[in-house]
Amino acid sequence: MSDPTTENLKRTPLYDVHVEHGAKLVPFAGYEMPVQYSMGVKDEHLWTREQAGLFDVSHMGPCFLSLEDGIGGGDEAHAKIAALVETLVPSDIAGLKEGQARLTVLLNEDGGILDDLIITRPIGEAAQGSLYIVVNGAVKDADWALFERSFQGKAVLTRADDRILFALQGPKAVDVMSDFFPGCEELKFMHHMPFELNGTSCIVSRCGYTGEDGFEVLVKPEAGLPLVNEMLTDERVKPIGLGARDSLRLEAGLCLYGHDMDPTRDPVEADLAWVIQKVRRERADFPGAERILKARTEGTAEKRVGIRPLERAPAREGTMIQVDGQPVGIVTSGGFGPSVDHPVAMGYVRSDLAGPGTKIDLMVRGKARLAEVVSLPFVPHNYKR
Amino acid sequence: MTRYTQPTTFYTKEHEWVTVHNDLATVGITHYAENQLGDIVFVELPDVGAEFATGDDMAVVESVKAASDVYAPIAGKVVEVNAVLADKPETVNESPREKGWFCVLEIKDGAEIASLMDEEAYKAFCEGL
Fold it and tell me: Where is the signal peptide (chain B) (predicted)?
């Protein structure tokens, strides 16, 4: 009899690679994904901070959005596609330089966050009028339906989630990557380059979700599978599962959609106001602009903060935060940070308690455990600026 | 009812081990359990003097991934807890059957021991998983 929990789950093109490397597979965002390999979460986490970790993120939502009447046409075409996308996001997409990428958020009409996503402007005149966009796996169908509804007759969406999307993260990632993609070491953080690999075009971006220097590669399975297999023979590279991906991003203070932000939170209370560039604030032409700009000047009831438990007990998602026995907030991500060798968490607290150094109680299994509000990240970012 | 004048170890389906010696039972989790949990970063132990019925939540083990309950394998009163685990929870991974014990219970009802598995039965149980 088939296991009901794995029924109807999709597999990424790297499924066999996971099995070969002893992955423990779990259902995640509709896919059977590796939560860890034989090394274990803690060692995979530490390996990524010291060497290079390879993550299968093919469950995510890479896609291309292109003008309906064709791409090409340089800056004018870019301005046209940017204007469309800017109706849904508050970031300056028109102002992106060729090859540049930006983190932004998809907003509902109230200014609540529907997803976070990375939007990249392609390189070369002939490619202008299209954007490379990566959305979260868990909400990709909803995001893409929103794109299609919003841009009907104006832009065409091409899903690329049948391809391999993998990340190589860590201080050794650049050396490994430059063996396969000579010249990629010149890329700066949040920039990308197209490459040819065995006659197949692929996209190499310098970004990631660990706080470390690293890259993400979008490539078709026929070229990507041999590439990943060869990378994994390199002694600096180990496959890393979702468990370590979560502890790495949490230590790096990076939000996880559906946990640290959701449609009830706006970018200001999520401490993501920096994704809204000045030009967009001045124009105030994005969904929920009124609420968001008011929140920016007048403040919000709650704010997302870093939380450091002062005892050894980790505080997980959903843990109530109290001060003087009164509820003042909730933990939205929490666990153990192997690099800081201590529990780490983030969550929302009443804005008057959001200052670093504020003492709070975390209600773990009915017991108040002392913690402190801290600045994020827990470990410094090592991006190549 | 058998009285165990020599330390004798039994097991539960929840992957706890119980070493019975006269009126006392030392409790921990098995290699299978610690391996499934992965790197253990925190153990919440019961208070000395606490009394548990069989199957009560007795302790909590936190790995990097998640928190898991540890149930009282038999009824009893806690007479000692392993203080080493407060600072070195990884001891449970390193030495689940020796240094990584959780607590010692004063056995309430010796007849309950008959419901536990012996080494051979537990081995067969694990192989069937």
Answer: none
